[in-house]
Amino acid sequence: MSNRSSVKFSKDYPVPEDMKAWVLGDPDELKLVTKKVPLPGRAEALVRIDAVAICATDLEVISYGTPAIFEGGAPFNKNFTPGHEYMGTIVGLGQGVDEFEIGDRVTVEIHAGCGQCKRCRMGMYTSCHNYGLNYGDVNKGHRANGFTTNGGFAEYAVNNINTMIKVPNEMNDAEATLVVTAGTSMYGLTELGGLVAGESVVVIGPGPIGLLAVAVAKSLGASPVVLVGTRENRNSIGLDLGADFAIDARKGDVVERVKELVGPKGADYVIDCAGNEDTVNQAIHMTNRGGKVCLAAFPKKPVQFDLGYLAVNNIYLYGIRGEGRSATHRAMAFMAEKRFDAARVHTHTFRMNALPEALRYARERVDDAIKVVVVNNSSELSVSAQTQ
Ligand SMILES: [Zn+2]
Ligand SMILES: [Zn+2]
Known about the structure:
about 400 residues, alpha/beta, Quinone Oxidoreductase, Chain A, domain 1, Rossmann fold, 2 domains, 6-stranded parallel sheet, about 25% helix, about 25% strand, binds zinc ion
């Protein structure tokens, strides 16, 4: 374990011994407690959390535990802090860190792989074979903040330097929390091959990852980009983010309507961000021969799908997990250049001490909430209030 003398601090950013943090008790029970401020070790930095976005996976962790694995098991009643889509300011440097300076604003990826397994060596650190083996407790471990290590519903968190990306001055805190979501969309397109300029891309499901998949696909030159969704408001945001067409999944035969837009042979690439039996089958049937399908949402139970159609048409099927292969850096490059306005998916902002209410907005989609952001820094509240 590190101690304070092995960490570089600055008097410009004083760091207290204790902090406030939300921890998970029983399922669906969050408590605001006082914890020790964690200390960074080698190749790590201490981040003062300024803003954190709520993700559907946070809601899953808080209610069911999965996919979090903390101290070898379910994350309940272990003083575990969830939250993984955060940004903040570096206030402490662990040993050997000269890649960042105290005071740098950074947004973070979730996963630091173990760096030792076969997949980490390939850049697939979100599929690290040592997931759930926390380092600190187990030396041959893996860090996934908010899943296998403490996360961002707190005042401070430790991050591996490979998980941090500098935030440009012009980008506000709330927008910076969205980089990892855009990075997940980018990872899907990366795994599909990435060379989508002039190719047709269909995105099914206008949640945050789907909407930003539209934006990233368009930025990569895909044409046309088609969004399929059931909610008109979400579809119209998709059009703002670069979709050439948005179709209502409840009206008519979705596969036929997509083919009217992309051509009778079907789409070159389809990204399913809804992940149910209907959408998986639609995705396969709207893909052209030799095309590629990416599953960016996890079906909750086994689904039946037309495997024969997939095989006989030489369709490739990809599953993605998280934001691997440094895709978050590429997403940040697009966002820094303002190729798309990710802030279109940010709908609500709450203070950190109102986290339970913020989670309710996200869970129940109150007021058609898409991305709900929680801030420690109250000046952000007025910024986003103006944008709503
Ligand atoms: Zn997430
Ligand atoms: Zn690994």
